[in-house]
Amino acid sequence: VRVEFLDYEAIDDYGWSLDDDDLFRKASHADLDESAHGRLLVQPDESLLEGAENRGFTWPFSCRGGACANCAVFLVEGELSQPTDHIMPEDLAERGFRLSCNGYPVSDELKIVFNVKQLPELDDLIL
Ligand code: FES
Questions:
Q1: pLDDT band, residue 126 (cuts 50/70/90)
Q2: CATH no. for residue 29?
Q3: Separation of 50 CA from ligand 1 center, angstroms?
Q4: pLDDT tens digits for 53-105?
Q5: Which atom of ligand 1 is nearest to the CA of 99?
Q6: Distance from residue 82's CA to the centre of ligand 1 (Å)
Q7: Residues 6+ apart with CB under 8 A from 87
Q8: Taking the CB of residue 110, how many other CB atoms lie within 10 A of it?
Q9: CB 47 less than 6 A from any atom of ligand 1
């Protein structure tokens, strides 16, 4: 599964928004560090977080068990599974927030923003 990723910090730094239609195009033109924007391949038996780690990236996490939201990502394109055993509230899940520690890619391509835990709407979930 091909994953294009973007660090929320870059969005914040540049004053972009999660809802920008051309977010990833802007990121491509912004000369970001390769840990902030790039692509990686995730194997079917890897969660998104494991996939990132196994390719040498360091993304935020804490519990690894769907209980803290430190690993939260925002889906821009594609779908990531969401096991029933997790803390993401329905309304945030509907907007596209997922947990990377127990989310497995279910589409061939994904575009995600990682490091979204600093968003105010996720504040209550972070343990
Ligand atoms: Fe805690 Fe993913 S690391 S929910």
A1: confident
A2: 3.10.20.30
A3: 12
A4: 999 999 999 999 999 999 999 999 999 998 877 788 999 999 999 999 999 99
A5: 2
A6: 12
A7: 66, 67, 68, 69, 99, 125
A8: 26
A9: no
Residue 123's pLDDT band, with cuts at 50, 70 and 90, is: confident
- pLDDT at position 111 is 97
- What residues does 7 pair with on adjacent strands? 114
Domain count of the fold of the chain: 1
Parent domain of 97: 2-125
97 closest CA partner among 37, 19, 39: 19
Q: How far is the CA of 84 from the centre of ligand 1 (A)?
A: 14
Which ligand 1 atom lies nearest to the CA of residue 68?
1
**Burial grade of 14 (CB within 10 A; 0-12, 13-18, 19 or more):** middle
DSSP state of 58: -
DSSP 80-93: B---SSS---HHHH
C-alpha atoms less than 13 angstroms from C-alpha of 44 in its C-beta half-sphere: 2
